[in-house]
UniProtKB/TrEMBL annotation:
Subcellular location: Membrane
Protein's name in the database: Rhomboid family protein
InterPro entries with a match to the protein in the record: Peptidase_S54_rhomboid_dom, Rhomboid-like_sf, Rhomboid_protease_S54
Keywords for the protein's UniProt record, in alphabetical order: Hydrolase, Membrane, Transmembrane, Transmembrane helix
Family per record: Belongs to the peptidase S54 family.
One Gene Ontology term of the molecular function aspect: serine-type endopeptidase activity
Length: 263
């Protein structure tokens, strides 16, 4: 495996591993500076559209992305050439960050409108609905408060606490960073499936062979499902994964139409 590693794949692996080591053991503040924040956050900087894809939440996050690059990247680099593989990785990664930021703005505005609706009409049932939709941001005791609020719907103290709770969610949502090269990796996956659709890949779990087009197809469907389900306890940026797939597919489709552009 390592004997067949290609130059761009090797450099991307080394950069990601080096950044992870430095950010976690030398300069931890890099995790705050280089993660991608919500555009309206005080922590947002435009360069984060590039830097976030070299940051990772933990070792297993890094390992899964780099393992995927190591498995699928070398053959793609040999076929497309170093320049196009690098373009594919960077454009999918940056593009996924940009599209995810737009999606986050839409979600934030939707939640903000719901909070305003509650403030105009502080109904305990509506508050309970918002709590369930965003339960990943709450500590368990908030559910005790929901019950108390339902028993005292007109109490100004309960209404004020409910409003502060929802405002706290808005602050958390606006300052929640995204990190990882998953958007770029999903661009690599879809490119591999489009260029080598019938290549047999052997899975570890379950131990069985599967063609690349079916494997990536299942990944794509799973990602789309999670985008629409939008589980509030799931901290994976599924929309960024989907964005990487779409951008990667568009790039490869354009390249396949112009056969003379492969190098």
């Amino acid at each position: 495996m390592f004997r067949n590693i290609t130059p761009v794949v090797q450099n991307l692996l080394l950069i990601n591993i080096l950044v992870f080591v430095v950010a976690n053991f030398v300069f931890p503040v890099l995790n705050e500076w280089f993660a991608l924040y919500f555009i309206q956050s005080a922590y947002f900087k435009p360069f984060q559209f590039l830097t976030y894809m070299f940051m990772h939440a933990d070792f297993w996050h890094l390992f899964s992305n780099m393992f995927g690059l190591l498995i699928f990247g070398p053959l793609l680099e040999q076929f497309l050439g170093p320049k196009k593989l690098f373009i594919l990785w960077m454009v999918c990664g940056i593009g996924a960050g940009v599209l995810y930021s737009g999606y986050s703005m839409y979600e934030y505005k939707s939640l903000e409108d719901k909070v305003l609706t509650f403030e105009r009409n502080p109904d305990p049932d509506y508050f309970n609905k918002l709590v369930l939709e965003n339960r990943g941001y709450f500590s368990p005791e908030v559910f005790d408060f929901v019950g108390d609020f339902s028993k005292n719907p007109g109490d100004p103290m309960y209404i004020e606490r409910a409003e502060k709770t929802l405002q706290a969610i808005l602050r958390l949502r606006s300052n929640q960073p995204m990190v990882g090269a998953s958007g770029a990796l999903f661009g690599i996956l879809v490119a591999f499936a489009m260029l080598f659709p019938n290549t047999q890949l052997f899975l570890l779990f379950p131990p069985m062979p599967v063609k690349a087009k079916y494997l990536v197809g299942v990944y794509a469907l799973y990602t789309i499902y999670n985008v629409f389900v939008n589980n509030p306890t799931d901290n994976v940026a599924h929309f960024a994964h989907l964005s990487g797939l779409i951008i990667g597919a568009a790039l490869v489709y354009g390249w396949k139409k112009d056969r003379n552009s492969f190098y």
